Amino acid sequence: MEIAPETLDERVSRFVEGLKGAGVKLTPQRLEIFREVAKSADHPDVETVFRGVRKRLPSVSLDTVYRTLWSLIDLGLLSTVGHSRERVRFDANMGSHHHFVCEACGVMWDFQSDEFDRVRVPDVVRKLGSAQKTQVEIRGICTRCSGETTSRRCASRRKEDRWKRRS
Amino acid sequence: MEIAPETLDERVSRFVEGLKGAGVKLTPQRLEIFREVAKSADHPDVETVFRGVRKRLPSVSLDTVYRTLWSLIDLGLLSTVGHSRERVRFDANMGSHHHFVCEACGVMWDFQSDEFDRVRVPDVVRKLGSAQKTQVEIRGICTRCSGETTSRRCASRRKEDRWKRRS
DNA sequence: GTCAATGCAAACTCTTTGCAATCTG
DNA sequence: CAGATTGCAAAGAGTTTGCATTGAC
């Protein structure tokens, strides 16, 4: 589950430089929270990060973990896996398909692609387990949002609202 | 945003058959909730489904929407987009990579694949918008979980726990 | 020393559950 | 008619926020 020590060191130095570059303070909490995410090959959730950090920093609070994770993401030093802060969405298309997601308005379209479907499961993955389903997600900006940069950008604003609700 | 009428009809009949086959009652709520998901090309979240259904069934309650969506998923008549009921997870690997996720224990491994990276963005998607990031997610069962079907299946059980927490 | 960052506790939102009334097959 | 399903209201999780205190630069 743990990552190679040299990779971790590399990540940590990039992190320290990243904070410095952004003029953000390097606190023990931030360092440990980052290390907790960076050291695992799996991708921890908030609770897991909290438990891990608390082993070394028993006084750390859960809300600091939340705040720190989101701000490191804003700084581009971490990312979320999958759909970030978005809500669960439902899909009635039970056939094989892929998704295009607009980062601005959150709209999500299905698409099919023989080219992607033809790629066979890499050997590295075969070693990890048996694959059942392969799904591609392409993220970008939809034509509607990129065309709205001038006057009303109602669709783009929709994203801000969604984030505001939680941050 | 809406799907072709014939596709919707087809989905609805498969849904009705699906319920019948499973010996589950067809209530107006279930039908409308399913239709609300099935009719949109985008993928609605709980709140959106609720608002849509309420237009035709003003007395529907939010908890029925939740219960119905999850049970339709259990019946295999709907699916969730992305990471279903799982929590947000964090990733310190800021380079381009893809994910293998174990459906049983939830473990998630990074992998790289030139083959996937070489596939160019399909034309259908270019029409939808500008692509920024392409990420492949392969779901399956990891070797650890598939090897544990006999005695202790601690890793597999971990998933049940996670689901129990919410259902 | 200054201003950002933290910890605490309370507030909020989203989601789930218990139970009586209702409706489907 | 019997048992599943619904609506209501209240409980439960997870997440966020306000504010006084602490700590990094």
CATH architecture of the largest domain in chain A: Orthogonal Bundle
- What is the tally of helical segments of chain A? 8
Q: In what range is the share of β-strand residues of chain A? A: 15-25%
Q: Percent range for helical residues of chain A?
A: 40-55%
User: Would you identify the CATH H-level superfamily of the largest domain in chain A?
Assistant: Winged helix-like DNA-binding domain superfamily/Winged helix DNA-binding domain
Oligomer: homodimer
Structural class of chain A: alpha+beta
Strand order of the largest sheet of chain A: 4-3-5
Would you list the SSEs of chain A in sequence order as H and E?
HHHHEEEEHHEHH
Record field, number of beta strands of chain A: 5
CATH class of the largest domain in chain A: Mainly Alpha
Rg of chain A is 19 Å
> pLDDT under 50 segments of chain A (min length 5)?
150-167
The third-level CATH topology of the largest domain in chain A is Arc Repressor Mutant, subunit A
